[in-house]
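Q: For a teaching handout, I want to show students what a protein-ligand complex looks like in C-alpha cell form. Below are the inputs, and the small molecule is adenosine monophosphate. Please produce the holo structure.
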Amino acid sequence: MLASMALVVTGTIGIDTVHAPTGSRERIPGGSAAYFAAAASRLAPVRLVAAVGGDWPEEHRTLLESIDGVSLEGLEHRPGSTTFAWGGRYHENMNERETLFTELGVLEESGPPVPDSYRDSRFVFLANTHPAEQRRLLGHFPDRTLAVCDTMDLWINIAHAELLELLREVDGVVLNDQEAEQLVEVRNPISAGRKILELGPSFVVVKKGEHGCVLVHEDGVATLPAFPADHEQVVDPTGAGDTFAAGLMGHLAREGTADRRTIQDGLAWGTVLASFTIESFSLDGLVGLDDARIAERMAAYRDAARLPEIAGAATG
Ligand code: AMP
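A: Here is the structure, written as C-alpha cells, with adenosine monophosphate included.
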C-alpha cells in the first residue's frame, strides 16, 4: 500500500432538523462536509473547507474538534452570518424524504478561502453545494489526482448550466438514481450513467438507496448491493450519501490510486460506513465508532455480497 495522499472535502456544515418515524431532533450537527469528514477520517486524514456563522452551536464545534484526523484549518467562522440550516422529514419507508426548509445563510455569501497549506491536496471531494462554488473550489487544487463531485435535485433545477461546466472538469460524480434521471432524462441507471460520462467524467456512481449502487466507469460497469440491514436498524438516513462518498474517497486517498478496481473496493467501504450513519441521528453512528466494528461489518458485507455459485453455469 502506498502512503495515503491528502484528501480534501469542500461542502456544508449544517444545523439539521430531522423528523423521522423514529423520532425528531432539532438543531443537530449535520451538513455534507461534516458527515464526509467524520466518515472519511476513519480511513485517511481529511482537510475540511467550509464556513459557519455566529449561531453555530459550541457543542457542534466541540464535536467536530473531537474527531481524530480532521483538519479544521479551512473552517471559516463568520460571526455576522448564519450557519446553513436544513430540515427534512422521512416517510414511513425511510427511503423517501421531503425537504422542509433550506436556510442558505453563509452559502449566500462568497465561499470560504482555501488555506495555502491545502493546495497540494491530491484527492478532492466537492460535496453538495452550488456547482459554481464547487468549480471555484476545484480551482484551488492544481495538483489533484482525482476530483469527484456530488450534486442534488436543487442544483440540477436551478444551476443546470453551471453543473454541466463542473462535470467537464471532474473525474467522477456520485448521485442517486432520481438525480441521474433528472440530469440526463434517462431512466435506467446504466444508460443514464453512460450519458453522464459523455458530459465529461470518467466514472459515475449511481446510488439506488436500499438497492445498492451502480458504477459506470469508462473501463466497464459494476454493481454493488446495499448493506443488508433490517428496517428496524434504520433510525435516521441523513448523511448516508455523504458517508458513502467518504468511504470511496477515503479508500482511494489511502491507497493513493483511482483505478476501477480500487474504486469498486472504495464503494464497498462507503456502503459499510453508511450502514453505521443510518443507525443513529446526526453523526452519532460515526463518532467514536470502533475500528473493529467497521472491520467486522466489512467482512460480513464481503461475505454477503459474494455471488453464490450458479448451478449448471460451468457445465454448458
Ligand atoms: P445526505 O443525506 O447524504 O443527502 O446529506 C444530508 C446533509 O446534507 C444534511 O446534513 C444537510 O445539512 C445537507 N444538505 C441538505 N441540503 C443541502 C444543500 N442544498 N446543499 C448542501 N448541503 C445540503
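A: Two things your students might notice: The pocket of adenosine monophosphate is lined by residues 12, 14, 16, 30-32, 86, 102, 128-129, 152, 154, 238-242 (CB under 6 Å). Residues 216 and 236 are 28 Å apart (CA to CA).
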